[in-house]
Design brief:
CATH superfamily of the largest domain: HUPs
Number of domains: 2
Structural class: alpha/beta
Strand order of the largest sheet: 3-2-1-4-6-5
Shape: elongated
Distance between the termini: 61 Å
Number of strands: 10
Largest sheet: 6 strands, mixed
Strand content: 5-15%
Radius of gyration: 24 Å
Number of helices: 11
CATH architecture of the largest domain: 3-Layer(aba) Sandwich
Helix content: 40-55%
Length: 333
């Protein structure tokens, strides 16, 4: 066994995200990282409990060739493959749509087999993700990066670089497909990959490792902060405004963000930046403040809670005004 293969297998086994006999659905694009991940999953978990999902979005001329490659790869490894073919939506963020569709389909497959979903994110992807989030979202979460496990999502290759996954595939004689859009400036991640990262490495050769090391330190510190937030909330989904105001500013922001996130069931970026306004809501009566991402802060009788922002009501308009009858109606947007 080559050194490149031993390095990956030994470390992934030691980290325990993949284990013999534990079912896993591998997100398979056909690129070097997902190809490496599929082979590693088979060698650690066993081909009987490993399956793969390939999503053909039809966005690239090479999409059909990518699909055929994944079929051949899975046939060679003895792995069941599920192929999804989707059509691009007319509007919106295409990458966000593609990611949402991919993970939703994989989670459904994993649920049916009682397993996890494995994504081929690498150390290189981690650095790009942190830099992207740092540029686009001024929050503490931006610097924490991706976790090795988030719910059913596993990232067994997060401690390896893209070069190491390529070396693994070469040593194992595995072919992979190159996605030309990865190097394109059309998407933000491509601009980070081709422009920002090389510039940082030019400043300091250890730039990527330094970003990763900082993220790991901040994740450890985040665990301490999270425990302080839990202590302040004491298991509740609300807090007295008087108590909120006595907290140190940093904990106060984290409490507000936690309550906002839990109210909508997902991250609600920007809520913490409105902490001072929220803490200043009146102690008497009822007051509300609408926040970004569909969150509303409500202060009632001195207690702060959060809920989803209700849909806007369309203005009532009489049919007489519209040239019709006197009946009125309303709807929701």
């Amino acid at each position: 066994m080559s050194a490149a293969v031993s390095l990956v297998l030994d470390r992934v086994r030691a980290e325990g995200l993949l284990a013999k006999g534990r079912p896993v659905v591998v997100l398979l694009s056909g690129g070097r990282d997902s190809t490496c991940l599929l082979d590693v999953s088979v060698r650690i978990a066993g081909r009987d409990v490993v399956s793969a999902l390939h999503v053909n979005y039809g966005l690239r001329a090479a999409a059909s060739a990518d699909e055929r490659h994944c079929e051949e790869l899975c046939a060679g490894l003895g792995v069941a493959l599920e192929v999804m073919r989707l059509q691009r939506p007319g509007t919106g963020n295409v990458q966000a749509w593609a990611r949402e569709q991919r993970y939703a389909a994989a989670a459904k497959l994993a649920l049916a087999m009682g397993g996890d979903v494995a994504a081929g994110h690498t150390k290189t992807d981690q650095v790009e993700t942190i830099l992207y989030r740092l540029a686009s979202s001024p929050s503490r979460r931006a610097l924490l990066g991706m976790q090795p496990r988030e719910g059913v999502i596993l990232r067994p290759l997060l401690s390896f670089t893209r070069e190491q996954t390529a070396a693994y595939c070469e040593a194992r004689g595995l072919q992979w497909r190159e996605d030309e859009t990865n190097e394109s400036d059309a998407y933000a991640r491509g601009r980070i990959r081709s422009g920002l990262l090389p510039a940082l490495v030019a400043v300091h050769p250890g730039a990527q490792d330094n970003v990763i090391a900082l993220a790991e330190t901040l994740r450890e510190e985040a665990a301490v902060l999270d425990s302080l937030v839990e202590e302040a909330l004491d298991g509740r989904a609300e807090i007295e405004l008087a108590s909120l105001r006595t907290l140190p500013p940093a904990i106060r922001r984290l409490v507000v963000q936690r309550l906002a996130d839990e109210a909508v069931g997902q991250p609600a970026p920007g809520a913490a930046r409105r902490t001072d306004e929220i803490a200043a809501l009146a102690d008497r009566g009822r007051a509300a403040l609408d926040l970004p991402h569909g969150v509303r802060a409500i202060a009632e009788k001195g207690v702060l809670r959060f809920e989803r922002t209700p849909p806007l009501r369309r203005a009532r308009k009489s049919r007489a005004q519209a040239g019709g009858h006197n009946r009125t109606g309303n709807g929701r947007s």
